[in-house]
Amino acid sequence: xxxxxxxxxxxxxxxxxxxxxxxxxxxxxxxxxxxxxxxxxxxxxxxxxxxxxxxxxxxxxxxxxxxxxxxxxxxxxxxxxxxxxxxxxxxxxxxxxxxxxxxxxxxxxxxxxxxxxxxxxxxxxxxxxxxxxxxxxxxxxxxxxxxxxxxxxxxxxxxxxxxxxxxxxxxxxxxxxxxxxxxxxxxxxxxxxxxxxxxxxxxxxxxxxxxxxxxxxxxxxxxxxxxxxxxxxxxxxxxxxxxxxxxxxxxxxxxxxxxxxxxxxxxxxxxxxxxxxxxxxxxxxxxxxxxxxxxxxxxxxxxxxxxxxxxxxxxxxxxxxxxxxxxxxxxxxxxxxxxxxxxxxxxxxxxxxxxxxxxxxxxxxxxxxxxxxxxxxxxxxxxxxxxxxxxxxxxxxxxxxxxxxxxxxxxxxxxxxxxxxxxxxxxxxxxxxxxxxxxxxxxxxxxxxxxxxxxxxxxxxxxxxxxxxxxxxxxxxx
Amino acid sequence: xxxxxxxxxxxxxxxxxxxxxxxxxxxxxxxxxxxxxxxxxxxxxxxxxxxxxxxxxxxxxxxxxxxxxxxxxxxxxxxxxxxxxxxxxxxxxxxxxxxxxxxxxxxxxxxxxxxxxxxxxxxxxxxxxxxxxxxxxxxxxxxxxxxxxxxxxxxxxxxxxxxxxxxxxxxxxxxxxxxxxxxxxxxxxxxxxxxxxxxxxxxxxxxxxxxxxxxxxxxxxxxxxxxxxxxxxxxxxxxxxxxxxxxxxxxxxxxxxxxxxxxxxxxxxxxxxxxxxxxxxxxxxxxxxxxxxxxxxxxxxxxxxxxxxxxxxxxxxxxxxxxxxxxxxxxxxxxxxxxxxxxxxxxxxxxxxxxxxxxxxxxxxxxxxxxxxxxxxxxxxxxxxxxxxxxxxxxxxxxxxxxxxxxxxxxxxxxxxxxxxxxxxxxxxxxxxxxxxxxxxxxxxxxxxxxxxxxxxxxxxxxxxxxxxxxxxxxxxxxxxxxxxxxxxxxxxxxxxxxxxxxxxxxxxxxxxxxxxxxxxxxxxxxxxxxxxxxxxxxxxxxxxxxxxxxxxxxxxxxxxxxxxxxxxxxxxxxxxxxxxxxxxxxxxxxxxxxxxxxxxxxxxxxxxxxxxxxxxxxxxxxxxxxxxxxxxxxxxxxxxxxxxxxxxxxxxxxxxxxxxxxxxxxxxxxxxxxxxxxxxxxxxxxxxxxxxxxxxxxxxxxxxxxxxxxxxxxxxxxxxxxxxxxxxxxxxxxxxxxxxxxxxxxxxxxxxxxxxxxxxxxxxxxxxxxxxxxxxxxxxxxxxxxxxxxxxxxxxxxxxxxxxxxxxxxxxxxxxxxxxxxxxxxxxxxxxxxxxxxxxxxxxxxxxxxxxxxxxxx
Lengths: 478, 859
Fold this sequence. Notes:
Number of strands of chain A: 17
Pfam families (chain B): PSCyt1, PSCyt2, PSD1
Oligomer: heterodimer
CATH topology of chain A: Alkaline Phosphatase, subunit A
Signal peptide (chain B): 1-27
Structural class of chain A: alpha/beta
Radius of gyration of chain A: 25 Å
Largest sheet of chain B: 2 strands, antiparallel
CATH architecture of chain A: 3-Layer(aba) Sandwich
Largest interface: A-B, 84 and 91 residues
Region (Disordered) (chain B): 446-471
Domain Cytochrome C Planctomycete-type (chain B): 51-109
Helix content of chain A: 25-40%
Strand content of chain B: under 5%
Helix content of chain B: 40-55%
Number of domains of chain A: 1
Number of helices of chain A: 13
CATH superfamily of chain A: Alkaline Phosphatase, subunit A
Distance between the termini of chain B: 50 Å
Strand order of the largest sheet of chain B: 1-2
Number of domains of chain B: 5
Strand content of chain A: 15-25%
InterPro entries (chain B): Cyt_c-like_dom_sf, Cyt_c_Planctomycete-type, DUF1549, DUF1553
């Protein structure tokens, strides 16, 4: 099925063309130019590509709150939930479409005040004091929707648009649509990814668009963030000698074979790999950042260190030209004892996320960097008691894909704006519904790509990130 | 846009004609005539210009057609577009007003206030609309035009000018195409390289040095056939060829992709495929067993086991087992099964027809739901006690006497171990009771003002403080809990009667209803169970009312549709040998596929495949013994025209070099370095290690889960096909290489793998531990071999082990230079340092050879 696509990523200028052209008697300057030409062609899959129309954002940072944060405790104040806290939902007021049995649940009010912030009056919980300070930079979507209540599947849908098939992740589509701004780096990087590989996969798109995973950002700059980036057992000289031996043998073989695009690709990949060994560690080495910046992100403080490093690295990768950086911040799946656990999750995420927005802004990067903050779904306004015996204050909340809150910042979206409303329970969207397909369409739109025209032919059909759906949410565009 | 205008004008004209006839019925009511005028003059132009581009013809964005009255009456995903009783709430108006959460229509800019007012007025009038007719989606293409649906013709191999070259019919087809172009085939590859090629292709492994020597020592023409017969009858043959089939099945040792639910019995299906291939099971029987093995008759227990195991084909893909909407879950599963059958056997994307007639292939909605009825009448999953979860149906297998005896023995050992844990737990529990009594006594004593030790309490030998006792109690309680875990775990791995993931006839058997736009909550007409009409020659078998129809589906595939199935199957085998299929898109033979490169050859082979009893070995034998297969892959200067005109080698003027697949790379590394160990198959997951199993507590709302914390000791050395396959994460442990070299995500069904060349692969080869281990082992063997007299002999031995050939004089001097540079100054202090340095430089060289393209490619 992939047969017809399988070689599309290899250099368009092949060795043979090069040799033929080189044999025509150019001087060394022309030769240099041609080598540069070949170097560009060798990275053809990641070469920058023209957008469909003027872009508002050049890159995306997707802060993925794995587990599904509770909008009812963080962003959406509903007087009804405060009033009815601890009361049975009951049959009379049950929102239409709520699952059978919901009437028996207890209404669960927010655990901390959710207050209007800044000039925009965006409502943010006291659990997120840092975020509250940048409220006027945020654009809230309160009517987000996905179609599946299971983590893995909703995560897949949030990333790829579907949950029952293998499709490219939005980062892979962005990389495919725009190419990379830096020839030595991948177009799509996923930091702390803990989801199914399909959530950052390239599926049928050329493999170069696959998310490169940074599993753990090393605190020691000598450690590697990319798998097998270094070999501590072998000296650089010995390694280079070995690579030279391999490359000489590979070139000799290629000469005999005459032409083979995969073989040529392998030769190029060895050189890129060798370059990455020196370029990437510097990029990942956060110790070169100013102490003030490290402190801003909470690097060095226990609660915020991991996420602070991830957010800071996301900024550095964006500066270096990566198109789509995904940062996974987990720990939001509060089925039980949400009152005990949510404050800790907030503590770990609040400062790093706010710092990223502040830092991007002061560096002038926020204008053309779209920040997306979202879980794979939200949580219910009624409580969940997984033990069956816990008192109300130990209850949690169940998954809610029907409506939840996502916020965006920068990259051409309106500042200090809120879009979408839900019913008095915060269950059903009453206006401003944004299905994940619509968000995908909007993200691509901001990147200068028409979601209906960004297609890839596979198995006899043109595929899109938004499949046959998706509407750009124009109201939120500045 | 230009073309759109033209087509809509055409449609408009047709619409007017209909309007004319329709208006007759309105003629009696002048008011209506007025309304019709309003529609024609104000509304229709607006619809045509702003709505038809996405909501007319075969365009139905959001499921909505606005081309006919019936279109907005039925409506799309959001129901009717105009509401007679609540005109103001009509989705159409809300959309054009850009109102609240409705899609804003038209999306490229809001209509003017005047235009919106027109629509509002029209809707308030009750939306008078003369446009009779049904919005019908694109009709299926004419079936006669799709070549794969044509019966298999009796093709005669063509005449060729160079009668010397062909060894058989295949070569005549290939040569004839080349001669048409005025081209010549490439010279034969040298015999050693042919042996390496054919051994990789048939067994997934390189030949041993002894096999090379034996073949090179036998100069006869029959030597080729002897090699092929030896390879085809080896166990390794099945191990290599099972894997492409598992790619099509979406095989994993995991159920679905949520929560790491183990598919403990999936290995039975993997081993079944290996057995079936090695036993040369005819492909039509292979199909029949996988679709309906449970319904076939058998003559032995082993045969019965295989028949049931084979139906795992239908359930071992990415089956969703958690979904609150059970109707949707069931329909999604049926959809997966239809997709798999369509792709694996028919080379068609059938699932498009879940929502609409296929856009360009002759598959219509009724065909899809005819098949859906078959699978909906089949039990594939069932609800389990835990939480919201379902699981794949598990069927108990009949047991042979030998299996029963072995199990009984294992069971008594198991029961003994369980008893030991129980006793250990009881002991701890008794001690807890004792301590509780002691503490109670002590507390009473304290309250009576006595000293806080227990020396004077009931137990004279225990003089510890209550604090110490409480600590011991806590430790004991932890021990009791740990014993619980161990008991649950023992219960989980208890030797029980063999069972396998399989399907059976459903409790309710019947026809399916069409799901409108694929939505099971929107049922349409009932469709009788059946097959794809356009694909069959003659009528298919009748499905009795009390049977699902799986058996008849298998009969249909191997009978009336066999011309399609055999073409698809032959093409898959061809692709694995020659790098590309005769039809390039091996899973898709529809109207949008590239035309075949050698259509007559494909028909010839497909017809022969059936007449030779659907024998895969027979076909492979003929392919690898052809002259076409024997061509060299290097392009001589004489080949420059062909290289320039046909760089992809579509016409087979040489053998295409191909990078080894991930499994072959690992297996070859292990084989060349002497690390490879045989395996007889069996369970891939290692549930016997407690750390690999989670959610054991029977009260858990989640199913039992697995992790791959610990592998069996032999895992790093067995062939890759026997390692566990995970669907929801990267492949673990010894299977790590699969994450780098294009192993297909087992959540999909695919017959073709891409070949990528990316930097992460190079890093794996340069720095990863797998090559280092192989290089180390290889070096140890070479340096310990006292029969190798000098460095030159040793270098030849290294090349022979890794590349199956001695090194050339040039390579010899390069390798010597490399060894010299890698050990520039041998340490003077003693031979130990010198040995280590020598070992290191040899290991570096071995590593370099193992990372080279000549090793990683099948040339």
